[in-house]
Amino acid sequence: MTPSANPVLLSLLGGAALAWVTLASVSVAPNRIVPGTGHGALEVAGWPGLALSLLPVVAAAGLALKGGRRQLWLILVLVLAMLVGLPLWLALAAHSLVDPGLPGARLGVGAGIWAVLFLLLLSLLEVRTRLELSRWLGGMLLLIPLASLAGVLTATPWLDSLALRREFVTRSDAFVAAVGEHLALVGAAVGCGLVIGVFLAMLMRHWPRLRGPGFTLLNFLQTVPSLALFGLLLAPLAWLAAELPWLAELGVSGIGWAPALLALIGYSLLPMVRNTFVALDEVDPAVIDAARGMGMTSGQVFRQVRLPLALPVLLEGVRITTVQAIGLTAVAALIGAGGLGRFIFQGLGQAAMDLVLLGALPILVMALIADALLGALGEWLRPGALHD
Amino acid sequence: MIELKDISRYFSGVAAVRELNLTIDKGEFCVLVGTSGCGKSTTLRMINRLIEHSAGEIHIDGQPIRSFREEVLRRRIGYVIQSIGLFPHWTVARNIALVPRLLGWEPERIAARVDELMALLGMSHSRFADKYPRQLSGGQAQRVGVARALAADPDILLMDEPFGALDPLTRDGLQDELLALHSRLNKTFVFVTHDMDEALRLADRLVVMHEGRIRQQGRPIDLLREPADEFVESLLGGSDRGLKEAALTPVSARMRRESTPSSAPAIDADASLRDALSLMLWHRADALKVVEGKGSAKMLGTLSLTDVVAARAPTASGEEARP
């Protein structure tokens, strides 16, 4: 590879520098309800501090201009260092801008920092791709800045005034419970969706006549807005719970987890069935012919050949379903199913954006982690992938 | 021995194979040849019941094939297809071990058999055993395909255009190896192809099929000499038949045990008359020096242009023989 400037990295880093200088790093509010006032990087650190904070970006951009593999490794280190530095920058802002005399004062993370975080993550992705590092290693690298954030949050009082942290501290128990509910709902929905979906896909493979109507029904289900589906389930479930006491004892009622779970399973079916069907159907017919010709029974063909070869695509269905369910479960809070959506709707009701973030950020993180883990698993399961 | 008696096969009312009778002796190399859609693949696949015959009976060593469970029958018959169909998620060694595993052999015996087969097909164990199919070239993959088919030492090997997707050079090499394997293993090979040169080169018994029926069968040289009808004649190459016949006849069958001027170009005694003719045309020579083996200096005799073309009246001890 002949070294040449990397335009992607250059624009990402240029954008980051621009956002850093022009956008508000943080916002400071005297209490929870009043909207905060934005403060740029200059106000946080003064001219010398601002210049110092720009140094790594400029250095990284200089390296990107030069290109080359060694330069990419250096850029990787610099980008990680900047990510590690972001929580410290917030701490500095808290120190210089938050009035210690106001116990209710809170520090909000400003557009500048969000933008820089986003652009730095994209740069990391670009560098990872250029260096041909595996997804796993890329994910592991992200642990370094996360450790820095966790360290600053737990070991020092520097970020006590951070708005998100304040929201968390006042409802830490509820937060943990909400995360648990969220994960339980997603896990149950994806698990049931997987079992039912694979079953349906195999039925459709066996009886081709079911394919048309089956997919039409699932497509239709997918187009019903989630709230409407929750509403539609309310009456029949309430009736069932009234008729069958043992169901009511299980906690089934018109609202709560039961309709949420049913709706989530319903939404998970289309991607599950479609991917499973395509995965099983796409296996090279020559391989199946050889397998039969060699004397495998139909059960052996399915278990030893068709299923393992279909697994990566099937897993892709699980990945799509999981990411989708993590997002949809947020809406389920509206019908009392719990989960992180509760904070989002509470926050919207109280016009407290930080509370909304307390619900939304973990959902985002969960979705990203699920996406990365299942994606990596699928990659790993691709035939012969280990021995390249 | 494989016997097909009055075999027919209908696909939704249309006959793909009609009242076909064919007996393939043990150890024979039988090639079914014909244009696409002539029923040759269907016939082959009926032998291991991948396609069931609609009428008639198929016997292997005297036993009707329907007296076996399909899987049991197929494990006794090797099967090689054009698209090879190696399992992409298994290594080369595991692919070869497929049938022995299905038969429940001991792991040591399987490992030993895999080693043996890889050696037989000239594949280095250390280089290839742990590779995955997509890391192989087409020729290497089909070697594995043949090794896999031979793994449980079947008496019969069915091959459905196994070299059809390979480049000519690789195909030539594999044809040679297949002939060597056949003469060494004493197994019955049933081979389907639409490539007449391949068919002529490989077959002990050539079966020409057309529209679901056998038009003619016999030794390749007999079919070339006396095609039963115009269809067979044109399939066998029409005006090209002279060259095709020359390709089947070894130089040793026509040479005279006389010495030649040393300036004449040399030809291997095992080469075909076609090669000899080509060499003469190329060197503008009307006589060749016949030597024993490629690049060898030991002279066996002389082959002149007259010897080549006077093929119908063999002069010396040469008898008509298959290569």
Characterize the overall form of chain B: globular
What oligomeric state best describes the polypeptide chains here? heterodimer
Unreliably modeled segments of chain A: none
Order of helices and strands of chain A: HEEHHEHHHHHHHHHHHH
* Biggest interchain interface, per-side counts: A-B, 20 and 32 residues
Query: Which ranges of chain B are low-confidence, i.e. pLDDT below 50, for 5 or more consecutive residues?
Result: 314-323
Q: How far is the N terminus from the C terminus of chain A?
A: 21 Å
Give the biggest sheet of chain A. Answer: 3 strands, antiparallel
What is the count of helical runs of chain B? Answer: 14
Structural class of chain A: mainly alpha
How would you sum up the major sheet of chain B? Answer: 6 strands, mixed
In round numbers, the mean pLDDT of chain B is 88
Radius of gyration of chain B: 22 Å
Structural class of chain B: alpha/beta
Radius of gyration of chain A: 25 Å
Strand % of chain A is under 5%
The average pLDDT score of chain A comes to 86
- How much of the sequence of chain B is in beta strands? 15-25%
Total number of helices of chain A: 15
Features:
heterodimer; A: 388 residues; mainly alpha; 3-stranded antiparallel beta sheet; 15 helices; 3 strands; flat; B: 323 residues; alpha/beta; 6-stranded mixed beta sheet; 4-stranded antiparallel beta sheet; 14 helices; 13 strands; 36% helix; globular; disordered C terminus
What does this structure look like?
The complex is a heterodimer of chains A (388) and B (323). Chain A is mainly alpha-helical. Chain A contains 15 helices and 3 strands. Chain A has helices at 7-22, 41-66, 69-97, 111-130, 135-155, 163-170, 172-206, 211-223, 226-243, 245-250, 257-281, 285-293, 298-332, 341-349, 353-381, and strands at residues 24-29, 37-40, 106-109. Chain A has a 3-stranded antiparallel beta sheet. The longest helix of chain A is centred in the middle third of the chain and has 35 residues, at 172-206. Chain B is 36% helix and 24% strand. Chain B contains 14 helices and 13 strands. In chain B, the strands form 3 sheets. Chain B has a 6-stranded mixed beta sheet with strand order 6-7-8-3-9-10, sandwiched between helices. In chain B, strand 4 and strand 5 (63-64) form a beta hairpin. Mean pLDDT of chain B is 88; it is low at 314-323. Classes of the chains: A mainly alpha (388), B alpha/beta (323). Chain A binds chain B through residues 284, 286-297, 300, 305, 308-309, 383-384, 387, and chain B through 48, 50, 70-76, 79, 81, 83-89, 91, 98-99, 102, 130-135, 145, 148-149, 158.
